[in-house]
Amino acid sequence: METTSLQAQLDAARNDRLRVLVIGAGIAGLTLAQLLRGRGLHPVLVERAGPDAPSGYMLALVPLVDPVLAELALTKTYRDRSVPMRRYRLRSRHGALVREYEMGKLLDAYGDYRGISRGDLMDVLAQPGGTVSHGVTVTALDQRPDGVTAAFAGADVAEAEFDAVIAADGLHSATRGLLLEPEQVTGHETDWGGWVVWMDADEDQDLGEELWGTGWFVGTYPVKERIGAILCAPRASKHEGLGALVARIRSEVSGAGDRLDRVLAQADDGRESYYWALNDCRSAAWTSGRIALVGDAAAGFLPTAGIGAGMAIESAWVLAHHLTANEYGDVAAALRAYEQAQRPRVEAAQKNSRQLAPMMFNSSPTAAAVRDAAARFVPLGVALRPIQKLLDTRPTPPA
Ligand SMILES: Cc1cc2nc3c(=O)[nH]c(=O)nc-3n(C[C@H](O)[C@H](O)[C@H](O)COP(=O)(O)OP(=O)(O)OC[C@H]3O[C@@H](n4cnc5c(N)ncnc54)[C@H](O)[C@@H]3O)c2cc1C
User: Fold this and answer.
1) Residue nearest to atom 4 of ligand 1 (CA)
2) Residue 26 Cα, ligand 1 centroid: separation in angstroms?
3) d(CA 209, CA 45)
4) pTM of this structure
């Protein structure tokens, strides 16, 4: 992506049949911008962070993303930069193997479940090129029947006119506050948080592994040439630091294998870890006239089911198709159709992520013992049913 001035982007968009402002060049915003570019538009893309912002954590992507990447002609690039995650291993609070699932077999009919770092995914999505203005935020949106005036901070232009404005500025979206009342945004708070650490690949690069502890959780997920790990615990213990969490896990777990040993050694070092609060958000409305929310700004995800980014990409795709379809008389009708199509799906997926949270982030020894015993008997088909349902009912947006 070429970093450019806002004025240069506005000049490029001047003669577009639809002038679209996309706020946030994250997963949803970048996907949407690229899809709109593919449809002959010059979306104006603004991003609060600088061009060298740290690009984060590891992602497992469900095959919901496949048609979107195919439309962007990015299938090969995506596959080259990611790894198939075909197996999932669950360990108990003491490190014993509870169960190993062959996820690949169950999902083969739909495509791959793949591991990719967020940075690599952003690189993949940037491949078709395009422009973005960094260090820019939107401070006000003034909507009239014939357009929206956006006011900017950090840009070379104070305000500009658009036909549609899309907020893709993530879980803590500031733009959302410009169109919704505070009580329209609710959230699920786990009171837990997690440190992300990275380590070198091992010989099991098709394996995701989780240890569900008592008062802690460790997940490890392969990406290209690396493994990303997240070590979670109640936020109340954050001040004790990652070293204290590592010591605690070491004292409670034995025989969990080389991968956990390596994660704990890496985490003990602590230098390259990054902390995430584990909560989500849900917006009571996704659209207001010519303005819409997409991705985490509309419905933010806990990472428990590994599906937030997949849903963000899918929603951006559905939005791009509705926005550019000829069948709507006006922009507001197109945005309403997008919300109608995606909100129920996304909220169902979000509900599933919420339901998993108390099992994964659990501090009661009794509940953990019951959970570990019960988990042995849960067939893979049952565990993956919510994801399979989403895949069985993939959207078919207008051409
Ligand atoms: C630790 C962790 C692990 C996860 N694991 C998975 C997983 O395995 N699989 C999965 O599918 N999902 C996973 N998720 C969820 C997934 O990352 C999110 O659902 C996804 O990133 C949402 O994309 P988005 O574009 O809406 O938001 P983001 O990717 O967060 O992008 C938002 C963008 O907006 C920018 N921005 C913020 N505020 C402003 C502003 N005011 N103005 C302009 N720009 C702004 C930000 O800098 C950012 O670039 C995980 C999340 C976390 C935290």
Assistant:
1) 303
2) 6
3) 37
4) 0.97
pLDDT tens for each residue of 85-137: 999 999 999 999 998 988 888 888 899 899 999 999 999 999 999 999 999 99
Place of tokens 């003034």: 142
Q: Which atom of ligand 1 is nearest to the CA of 30?
A: 25
Q: Is it the case that residue 277 has pLDDT exceeding 90?
A: yes
- CATH of range 59-117+189-279; options 1.20.1050.10, 1.20.1730.10, 2.30.30.100, 3.30.9.30: 3.30.9.30
Q: Closest by alpha carbon to 90, among 106, 73, 103, 81?
A: 103
- Ligand 1 atom closest to the Cα of residue 137 is 42
pLDDT score at 270: 65
Rounded to whole angstroms, how far apart are CA atoms 264 and 127? 35
How many angstroms separate the most distant Cα atoms in the chain?
A: 65
Ligand 1 site, CB within 6 A: 23-29, 46-49, 57, 59-61, 137, 168-170, 174-175, 196, 230, 276, 295-297, 301, 303, 306-310, 312
Q: What is the pLDDT of residues 190-233, one digit of tens each?
A: 999 999 999 999 999 999 999 999 999 999 999 999 999 999 99
Residue bearing the CA closest to ligand 1, atom 19: 308
For the segment 17-76, what is each residue's pLDDT rounded down to a tens digit?
999 999 999 999 999 999 999 999 999 999 999 888 776 899 999 999 999 999 999 999
* Domain 2-56+120-187+281-358: CATH superfamily, name plus number: FAD/NAD(P)-binding domain (3.50.50.60)
Closest ligand 1 atom, residue 295 Cα: 26
Count the helices and strands in the chain (H runs, E runs).
13, 23
Helices 27-38 and 118-126 cross at an angle (nearest 10°) of 20
* 105 Cα–ligand 1 center, Å: 29
